[in-house]
Amino acid sequence: MAGSNLTGMTPSTFILNGIPGLEESHLWISIPFCSVYLIAMVGNCGLLYLIWTEEALHRPMYYFLCMLTLTDIAATTSMMPKMMCIFWFKLKEVGFNACLAQMFFIYTFTGMGSGVLMLMALDRYLAICYPLRYATILTNSVITTAGAVTFLRGVMLVMPVVVLARRLPYCRTNVIPHTYCDHMSLVKLACASIKTDTVYGLVVTLVIGALDILCISVSYIMILRAVVSLSSKEARSKAFSTCSAHICTIITTYTPVLIPIITPRIGGDNIAPPIQVLMANIYLLLPAILNPIIYGLKTKQIRDSFLKIFFRGKAGSAFGA
Description:
Elements: H1 2-8, E1 13-16, H2 26-53, H3 60-89, E2 93-95, H4 96-129, H5 134-137, H6 140-167, E3 175-176, H7 183-187, H8 195-228, H9 233-262, H10 273-298, H11 300-320
Parallel strand pairs: 1-3
Antiparallel strand pairs: 1-2
């Protein structure tokens, strides 16, 4: 009965207050965020179209890149529409269940993105260390299963985060000082102990992030050993070049993602709230806009396929004229 009474204290709607302290500048802040989001969507959708239409890109490496692209699109789209409603129209209300749903999708897809980066590292390991067996190991069914398991892992780990947050009574305030339903920003409003939520949230971060980073590190240690043993300098250079785009993506993904996740749990109160919220938004948007650029610049097959379609379209336009 006591638990039921506590649950009844939770308001039906919450207020997403945007970036605390910068409310008067929301309209101006929305311009770069909206521009980056639109550019990211164009870049990622263009990359998906390129891989879909070009036979030369129908390979495991690019199928995993498609998964990464889809997770970037899903994660940013889970955040941006509501964020723009706050900035443009001051529509700050969000239902409690809708808030939990947004939290679930954002963390599930960011967790899946981390898992896909691990799969891409394993893909590079197999391509370099077992080139003759590469195609027979990474069949379409194996790739599909790996993607499904990565998604289910995210769902199974994130779902308890939502369930734990839902059970808390929120009787202090219903104002969330954030642009989206961030886990720690929400549970800090509860008028009950949030130790379990904090510890489990950190465990999920470590299980997903640390495990994936460990697997990626082991894969690259094995790759480095295999590459160093190659006798040809040209072969070593080619092997390293196939990994360069993935390494850049790892850096741009994990560097900003760890800061907003770790700092609130280890005394992040010393960091100004506007900086915390801005970092949390940037870590979702940065990979989405940079990944198509990184792979477009560093992957020869993607560049060649893009130029092929571009000049084909240009020639078709000239012929039509």
